[in-house]
Amino acid sequence: MKTAEREAARELRAEGWSVKEIECALGVSRASVSTWVRDIELQPAQRARLIERARLGPIVAGERKAARARATRLEYQTRGRRLLGAADASYAAACALYWAEGAKRRNALKLTNSDPQMLAYFLGVLRRYFDVADERIRVACNLFADHIARQREIEDFWLRRLGLPRACLRKSTVNRYSKYSQKNRQNKLPYGTCALVVHSTEIVQTIYGSIQELGGFDRPEWLD
Predict the structure, then answer these.
(1) 184 vs 169: CA distance, rounded Å
(2) Dihedral Cα 191, 193, 199, 200, nearest 10 deg
(3) Which sign, positive or negative, has the C-alpha torsion 37, 39, 40, 44?
(4) What is the pTM of this model?
(5) Spatial CA neighbour of 159 closest among 141, 174, 145
(6) Contact 21, 58 (CB under 8 A)
(7) Is pLDDT above 90 for 89?
(8) Which 3 state secondary structure label does DSSP give 108?
């Protein structure tokens, strides 16, 4: 955790936080904070912010909690960078898939597609590298009006292809369309699409770290 705390401390210092505030927010020693941030020279705007924060008083509990949560997310991303180098090609491929198709949420994975093999592949990687149990997985089908008569069949199709019990299924949604679009909808996406969801800050932030390592870039907004 020290690496994540150090990076979080440096980011907070660059934003104009005092050493004491960083110490309180991250729950580390003042000596450690001083060592980590001593080379950071504050710009006038940052010094002004530091003075303003001192005038307003100590940081509130919400800020402290947010800073610690951010440090935890950063630690998961750091772990993900290391994991990319240790894992095999299937993991790297799953990360690239999520980079392209996944919803970029802070605390949950969500991958939606019409290709059952794609979702089954991704779920297999999650099970292998993160030991994701069935009870943590949620699936939801996105159907069209011409699917209504086959709704149960379609839901069972996705559950069967993903190897999941019906307890994982959430309520399906149905998209309505005009008569014109109905004429062009026949035989397209015969099983609609399926959303695969796992609520886990640790897993999604680990994958974000792996994606950044894979692509050779930094995406700070994935921490926020």
Answers:
(1) 29
(2) 110
(3) positive
(4) 0.74
(5) 141
(6) yes
(7) yes
(8) strand
